[in-house]
Amino acid sequence: xxxxxxxxINAGDTAFVLLSAxxxxxxxxxxxxxxxxxxxxxxxxxxxxxxxxxxxxxxVLWSLLTFSLAFGTxxxxxxxGLDYVLLRGVGMDAHATYGGDIPFAAFFVFQMxxxxxxxxxxxxxxxxxxxxxxxxxxxxxxxxxxxxxxxHWVWGGGFLAKLGAIDFAGGTVVHVxxxxxxLASVFVLGKRTNTAHLPHNIPxxxxxxxxxxFGWYGFNAGSALGATPQAAxxxxxxxxxxAAAMVAWLLLSWIVDGxxxxxGALTGVVAGLVAITPAAGYxxxxxxxxxxxxxxxxxxxxxxFRIRMGWDDALDVWGCHGVGxxxxxxxxxxxxxxxxxxxxxxxxGNTDQxxxxxxxxxxxxxxxxxATYVLLVLLKAIMKVKVDAREEQAGLDRALHxxxxxxx
Length: 408
Fold this sequence. Notes:
The chain is mainly α. The chain is built from 16 helices and two strands. About 70% of the residues lie in helices and about 0% in strands.
């Protein structure tokens, strides 16, 4: 490449993106604590391990193959080419399309953190019942077959991007995909033998949400890929939506369940952050307040619906991430303001943007659900995916890992 055509590196934007990547990285350990506190004490190490091992396996896979499948040269709008296999061409120079004035390596590592946490989110749905060996295979295949194509469709120049769908920081790519994959896993794996339990360590839950909330500033603001006014708006929108959803969920749980639940308030925070993610850099702060409130109402209703249906989504991944991501992605097409992110939504008279986001969200949700369902059915046919009743009763920490979190 002619050196005169390589964009100049901006030190400030580079530092901002690297810091944002570090913030997103802390979200996966945060998720481990969030989920770890919610499960039974005898399964806490297992679900935390499922998050931490994603940091290892997905990093290796992202470096070898999946980054290229997500962001390589577009192949028929479906997947990226093999341009960046084994990190070929991923170095200190900037990329004209991805980041502009930051090293391509900075974009690579920032996106890697999204690829890590997305499959880790799914684990809350099948908590207490997936065999660890099967999880490792699922993690690898899901990353290649589902996450990488979805990332390409929306962020890598694939057909959803060409359709006009917008997703600032992962409402569709991360949360809708994880939430719908979670629902598919519930149907394929079936119920636990004992679904009744209370969170074993609510302070762990609070710690996890605190780390998630903190890291989410990098998740959303960092998606501007520079220290820009748009990043500032995304930061503000993230805080407002999270706070509004927390307050709304607290009030809902107080009114409907008769008590102001700590776990409910913390879940509201996550629902608000999920919903604002696709819209963070595209909407006015006043819209983020509405998105946060609607996310709390929608996700709260989804959790209640899931309970009535008897679905054993142990930690409500579908209700929080699937429904929250869906709400946020659709509302992005409603509230997008051209003055903020360059896109105008339904309220500014652009029906096409609303329809593009609607179609894009539905397509992504259907793909994630069907593909995950088929993947798990195939895995179930060739290996032991669900632990047996004896292992579940003993606890997965002891049965699968030979360790225990607590010595009572």
